[in-house]
Amino acid sequence: MKSTPFTHLHLALGAKMAEFAGYNMPISYSGINDEHHTVRNNMGVFDVSHMGEFILKGEHALALIQKVGSNDASKLTNGQAQYSCLTNENGGIVDDMLVYCVEQNKVYMLVVNASNIEKDWEWIMQFNDGSVEMHNISEKTCLLAVQGPNATKALQTLTDMDILNMKYYTFSKGKFAGVDNVLVSATGYTGAGGVEIYFENEGDHAVKIWNAIFEAGAAYGIKPVGLGARDTLRLEKGYCLYGNDIDDYSTPYEAGLGWITKLNKTFTASEFLKKQKETGTEKKLVGFEMTDRAIPRHDYIIRDAEGNLIGRVTSGTQSPTLNKGIGMGYVLSDFATIGSEIFVDIRDKQMKAVVVQLPFVK
User: Would the pTM count as exceeding 0.85?
Assistant: First the structure.
């Protein structure tokens, strides 16, 4: 298993560790519910250095991103970021990603999922005719997500960058906690506010920035948070997890990601998706709340009132905020209407649930 530059700190803090995407990652410290509420109400720190980062440079960098990505990256100006996805010719999602415009039309950073780094790199490379300079900087990049309503207030003391007033999906580069060339981005996977901090794994940068963040957040009750709470937080907001809710065989329209699918340009899946938009989809990703007391889990079967198979759960948990079972899953489109009653197979019983509007927690 690989380690991140913070693994020794997680172990020293007594984190419950487990393998994730080939890395030894913290799952929880004080407990998933406690960490979840800390982020929703205050601030917490996630080590997400396992994520992948690619730099694309050159006058054809934007054209390459436009070819492989579903969203329209030409709208990005310096300091803006965008949610997008890589698609295959059959409309399937190779990966979801963030696109950062470092220098308009010339330099971009793509942030991809840890489990897909090699796959994504090879996928993009096949469309590069050699005119775009590409660098995989994943191994030497640290990434900390500091999330929660008090995050920017605490972190503003560590930098001259105006992160307190940073707009959602924008970023700045500068000095942070005495370290140069740090990228601070108003993004995250929790829906609780806060930032993500990218910097080079060099010298004592990792420990220096980690310690500075915890010192700055001490007055706000800052805590380290593991991947367990990261999952419950993102699910409450209806954010897709690659490998669960989206994959090579689900399309953006099926997954409710039509908003990042711009058909005014030509990209790998544009022709397929134009047709799918016209004809509609057989299945759709929906959010649902359990009305019976039960917790849905990944791959549980979903049925209609007559017991017919109509879909499967892709993500499910007991919501720490709502104190009830919630989940997402693909169902036949006829059952995707808000208010539709569905049934989830849990321990040989069909437990009642209702399709709801996402996000679960506003």
Answer: yes
